[in-house]
Amino acid sequence: MTTKKVERRIKIKYRIRKKVNGTAERPRLSVFRSNKQIYAQVINDDAGVTLASASSLKMDKMPKKEQAQKVGELLAQNALAAGVTAVVFDRNGYLYHGRVKELADGARKGGLNF
């Protein structure tokens, strides 16, 4: 059973995914946020492979926005190690503010271009 809020986000997500697609040159940086955690992946949609990922699961207790920024920096570090420098950002139906924006800023600070 899904709520209207979740159904709305899923509709927005599909609308975004029609336009945003990850390739080998520019993979897709996908964000998922739950009430307590935030997760991010760098995905090559052509091959259907996750190239790098990071989450806040094993982080120390800190405010959620700080956690999101640290996850962005960690993801950038993992992506650079995998040879990825440029990505396209997939906000996954979430508004681009708060934790999603902090994650994106952290990834930029870590060295990813998008």
Describe this structure in words.
The chain is α+β, with helices and mostly antiparallel strands. 40% of the residues lie in helices and 20% in strands. It is built from 3 helices and 4 strands; from the N terminus they run αβββαβα. It has helices at 4-19, 64-81, 99-110, and strands at residues 28-33, 38-44, 49-55, 88-90. The protein has a 4-stranded mixed beta sheet with strand order 3-2-1-4. A hairpin with a 4-residue loop joins β2 and β3 (49-55). α2 (64-81) packs parallel to α3. It starts with a helix and ends with a helix.
Short summary of the structure?
The chain has 114 residues and is α+β, with helices and mostly antiparallel strands. The protein is 40% helix and 20% strand.
Major β-sheet strand ordering: 3-2-1-4
Strand segment count: 4
**Helix amount, in percent?**
40-55%
The stretches of 5 or more residues where confidence is low (pLDDT under 50) are none
DSSP helical segment count: 3
Rg from alpha-carbon coordinates: 14 Å
Shape descriptor: globular
Order of helices and strands: HEEEHEH
